Amino acid sequence: MSEEFENALQAMRDAGYKLTPQRKEILAYLMTHETHPTAEMIYQDLKNQDKSISLATVYNTLELLLKTQLVLAIDSDMDGKRHYDYFGHPHYHAICTNCGRIVDGRNFDLSQLPNIAANETGFLIKGYEVTVEGLCPICQEKLGINN
Ligand SMILES: [Zn+2]
Ligand SMILES: [Zn+2]
């Protein structure tokens, strides 16, 4: 078990949540998948290895993880669904307005954003999301766009 997973579990304990096996499974899934899955996708994948898991458990666990800020929700206009993302390492997202693909962007340091925003606005910052929109390389190719 990685140190990062241990730290994430500790953050859940600190927030007062019990670490049931299924909560751990769902957290581990998000940490190892950069696919920005929906709750249904997580459920479909996990039920192969754990027959006792339910979609309700997945949803409930995702709600807890959102509260701990370990996980970020991305509401996609493309499919009208909520996608989930492990956010232990703050990053921005590039979303394709043609196919809906969500790609992680890690080449920009967002870690100071909450502090800067808090100082500027006086807000108690509870979360944030930074998104850029455009056409992904595959869609550029498909649509015959040369840049
Ligand atoms: Zn695309
Ligand atoms: Zn992401």
From TrEMBL:
<dbReference type="Pfam" id="PF01475">
    <property type="entry name" value="FUR"/>
</dbReference>
<feature type="binding site">
    <location>
        <position position="99"/>
    </location>
    <ligand>
        <name>Zn(2+)</name>
    </ligand>
</feature>
<dbReference type="GO" id="GO:1900376">
    <property type="term" value="P:regulation of secondary metabolite biosynthetic process"/>
</dbReference>
<dbReference type="GO" id="GO:0003700">
    <property type="term" value="F:DNA-binding transcription factor activity"/>
</dbReference>
<dbReference type="InterPro" id="IPR043135">
    <property type="entry name" value="Fur_C"/>
</dbReference>
<dbReference type="GO" id="GO:0045892">
    <property type="term" value="P:negative regulation of DNA-templated transcription"/>
</dbReference>
<keyword id="KW-0805">Transcription regulation</keyword>
<feature type="binding site">
    <location>
        <position position="139"/>
    </location>
    <ligand>
        <name>Zn(2+)</name>
    </ligand>
</feature>
<feature type="binding site">
    <location>
        <position position="96"/>
    </location>
    <ligand>
        <name>Zn(2+)</name>
    </ligand>
</feature>
<dbReference type="InterPro" id="IPR036388">
    <property type="entry name" value="WH-like_DNA-bd_sf"/>
</dbReference>
<dbReference type="InterPro" id="IPR002481">
    <property type="entry name" value="FUR"/>
</dbReference>
<keyword id="KW-0804">Transcription</keyword>
<keyword id="KW-0479">Metal-binding</keyword>
<comment type="similarity">
    <text>Belongs to the Fur family.</text>
</comment>
<dbReference type="GO" id="GO:0008270">
    <property type="term" value="F:zinc ion binding"/>
</dbReference>
<dbReference type="InterPro" id="IPR036390">
    <property type="entry name" value="WH_DNA-bd_sf"/>
</dbReference>
<dbReference type="GO" id="GO:0000976">
    <property type="term" value="F:transcription cis-regulatory region binding"/>
</dbReference>
<feature type="binding site">
    <location>
        <position position="136"/>
    </location>
    <ligand>
        <name>Zn(2+)</name>
    </ligand>
</feature>
<keyword id="KW-0862">Zinc</keyword>
<keyword id="KW-0678">Repressor</keyword>
<protein>
    <submittedName>
        <fullName>Ferric uptake regulator family protein</fullName>
    </submittedName>
</protein>
<keyword id="KW-0238">DNA-binding</keyword>
